[in-house]
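User: I want to check something. If I give you two sequences, will you return the structure for each one separately, not as a complex?

Assistant: Yes, each is folded on its own. Here is the first sequence with its structure:
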Amino acid sequence: VPEGVGEMVADVQEDIRPPSGLAWPPLEGVDIQKGIQTWQNPEAYARVLLGFSRDYGNAAAKLTRLLDDGDLDSASRLTHALKGVAWNLSIIEVAGSASNIDVALREKRIDDVKEQLSTLAATLKTAVDAIRQLEAMQDIEEIPKKEMDLPYLKELFMRMLAAFDLFNRSAIQPFLSELKEYLSH
């Protein structure tokens, strides 16, 4: 941000509600506060958590199969990806378990990896089960409320671009709220 432009935000109190507007349920194994602080967008964070539960919910079983097949390269890639995504989403226990397995795989300590798989499976199940609570709370409307008005939307985007120059996130929020009326998620 250029010197002397924008506003300093001393203490940001993030709104930690899922897309439906309800309060976040406690998600065992997930540091919600840290995740929202990192993502800065509770709706996006909730969607990515749900994607994590779909994409990595069976990672421990897949890792077991890869190890049984002797495919250490694929096992290592899967573990490394799981570790990174879990840290990024503040799924702390899963990230820790995946990190331990990642190190053991790099050091070719396969017996240690197999011993640690049960811990990974348990922490992953706990986190995925908790995250799936968000599915019931989502209220995503697929059909926009207003019909496309391209000239108006073009003008809206131009005003939004000008608001970006203010370096003030609250100046952008009204535009995003209006866009939700025209665009689906």
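And separately, the second sequence with its own structure:
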Amino acid sequence: NEILALLERMNARRIFFGFESGNDAHLAKLKVGKVTVEMNKRAIDLCVGRGFKVFGNVIFGSPGETLSQMEDTISFIKWAKAHGVSRMLMSVMTPYPGTPVWLDGVKMGRVSETMNWDELMINAEQSGFRGFVVDPSINEEQFSAMVKKALVTIHAFKWKKLKEFFVSNPWETVRFVSRAPWPLIRRMFVRKST
């Protein structure tokens, strides 16, 4: 609460968290045992309760992450949105040279120093499995399905939010929609998964 009080005095309005995962075992690997899912939930409740807009990110496809752990992350996304998180983002683990994740990717045969480096820039919506360091027990179809499920959960279209955005700034809304790439517009209108 002291940190939040300090942020209030600094006139901060938004806080962005790297939540990374909704599974404690996997989160322990990503955050070196320093953070739990319960701690992330408590942080959300504290920040939202003090009036901050909370944004967050999760990562899919880290070495050793199972489909079940990805499902836990999707459940966490749903919980976070229901508890006031303004926006959630997701990314796919990128193996940068020199990192432990890169070394895992080399062992898996998914990355190499002679690879096409553009393969590391593939985003979660594009097909292609090379460059990802997803656990070898998970195939491309399973991973793609999980990523799509997460995207639908994150980007479920809400007419109320569009109306609020339009009412608060109609020109910016028109500008945003006219410049948005087709995949983003398509994602905005995906029905929420059950």
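Because they were folded independently, the notes below concern the second chain alone. The mean pLDDT is 83. The first helix runs from residue 2 to 9.
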